[in-house]
Design brief:
The strands form 2 sheets. The chain has an 8-stranded mixed sheet with strand order 1-2-3-4-5-6-7-8. Strands 9-10-11-12-13-14 form a 6-stranded mixed sheet. By secondary structure, the chain is an alpha/beta fold. A hairpin with a 2-residue loop joins strand 9 and strand 10. Helix 4 packs across helix 6. It contains 7 helices and 14 strands.
């Protein structure tokens, strides 16, 4: 009980962590218990997110990485979870998605934004939902980094999984894959910054040791997205970023849901 009280006192925005048979879960509205794991892949600094209904074991994984699929499968087995969806926030250029491999191993459904042009069981559009147990992730298009980027927002708007559209104190690049800085600025301000200030931001990458943020923090402190649209566009045009070294492999594979041994 002492541990439970300490976990509850450390929670953010009246969301408490509780012990369950499947590990730590987060208390949500209506007595629901959400299990959340933030997983990291070091070579591309990619975050993968595993979410599950602690009561039913139904789960969804966001932005899995091919090389880390054995880790993800082991965690799913250890926690007794049933993976319903393997979803991507966009067609990645810096790593090959693990969604196809997870689909083959577990029979889950793959999902990606319709405007990505990529293959998947579900090609997601505005207002679509990925339901797992008593929870759902709402699909919010947030193009700009790529035309097909989406943000997954938990149904109570307490969490948003923003992929590369919004990073902690940063954002994704806009200089390839039909990126557009002005579109990205509009997407973040109209679709993400319109969420409640307490909504937690879980990014697709981090290169400086951050794990998460909130809408309120990013509205006030993000050095790029606090700029006006014209200033933001000028800043993004000045960036001199190296080409992702896996780009020529990752993009073709990810257009096929990460499956590389099919035409």
């Amino acid at each position: 009980m002492a541990l439970l009280r300490r976990l509850r006192s450390a929670a953010v925005a009246s969301v408490a962590s509780v012990a369950t048979g499947r590990g730590l879960a987060t208390a949500a509205g209506g007595g629901r218990q959400l299990l959340l794991r933030q997983l990291f892949e070091a070579s591309s600094c990619t975050y993968t997110y595993l979410l599950a209904d602690a009561a039913t074991g139904d789960a969804v994984i966001i932005d899995p990485v091919l090389e880390m699929v054995p880790r993800d499968l082991q965690l799913l087995r250890e926690l007794g979870l049933t993976l319903r969806y393997a979803a991507n926030t966009h067609c990645h250029a810096d790593h090959v998605t693990g969604s196809g491999a997870l689909r083959r191993a577990l029979g889950c459904r793959s999902a990606i934004g319709r405007d990505s042009g990529a293959r998947a069981d579900l090609r997601l559009a505005e207002g679509d939902e990925l339901r797992f147990g008593a929870f759902a992730l709402r699909v919010v298009p947030t193009p700009g980094h790529t035309p097909g980027c989406v943000t997954f927002v938990l149904d109570d708007a307490s969490m948003a999984f923003t992929g590369d559209a919004l990073l902690v104190r940063g954002c994704g690049r806009t200089d390839f894959q039909q990126g557009c800085a002005r579109t990205l600025h509009r997407s973040v301000h109209e679709r993400i910054f319109s969420l409640p200030e307490s909504c937690r931001i879980y990014p697709g990458h981090d290169y400086r040791g951050h794990t998460m943020s909130t809408v309120g923090e990013e509205r006030r402190h993000n050095p790029r997205l606090t700029l006006g649209a014209d200033e933001f566009v000028a800043l993004m045009e000045r960036l001199q970023l190296p080409r992702p070294h896996l780009m020529d492999v990752a993009i073709p594979a990810n257009l096929r849901c990460g499956i590389q041994d099919e035409p």
